Amino acid sequence: MYLTAAVFFALLTTLGAGHPTHRERCPLSSYQTVLPSDITAARQLQNQTRVSLKCHQGLRLSSFPECDIKGNGRLRLTLHRVSLAVRLLKNMTKSKLVLRNLELFGALHETLLCNTSHSDKVPTHPVLESCTDHLVTYTKDTSAGCIEQDILMSLVWLLIEDMRFLVDEDQLGREAKISAPQL
User: Methyltransferase: present as a keyword of the record (predicted)?
Assistant: First the structure.
């Protein structure tokens, strides 16, 4: 009986809050303070971007208030957008500035992948599906030049706003875990 209860409790905590070792192995807290030099590198890359095209900024979640979601949904949306940035940076001419940003966003991509790997079994929410569909449609229907411009103009936003939101949420989750009664 006790063994069954223990297994059931372990399954509930794993499915409900994610496997604890994932958060410990892939802490988002390493992005709690983004180094000024990293922000400068992203800004310099943005400054090199020619804003010659009239493009809609479809990658920023602030453009779509309904996509301002929390938890695994936010993590997945941020992962999708960071994946686009990494893919673009890999295809750009390899200058020191591009390589620096590729290293930074590549590491961020790996951390986000590690944090979302446990949530594949969690059913998706309709709002998350709608927001993901928006990003997929946007990247299919928008010209390559506009997507490149949009991604490059969103680098600092991804580093500062999205990561701050995810780190704060991760910290709250850790504090709740620490203050939760131990059984």
Answer: no
What's the chain's Rg over C-alpha atoms?
A: 18
Alpha-carbon 112 to chain mean position: 6
Fold (topology level) of 69-183: Growth Hormone; Chain: A; (1.20.1250)
pLDDT score, position 6? 36
The domain limits of the chain are 69-183
Query: Looking at the predicted structure, is the pLDDT value of residue 141 above 80?
Result: yes
Q: What angle do CA 168, 172, 173 make, to 5 degrees?
A: 115
Q: Is 95 exposed, middle or buried (0-12, 13-18, 19+ CB in 10 A)?
A: exposed
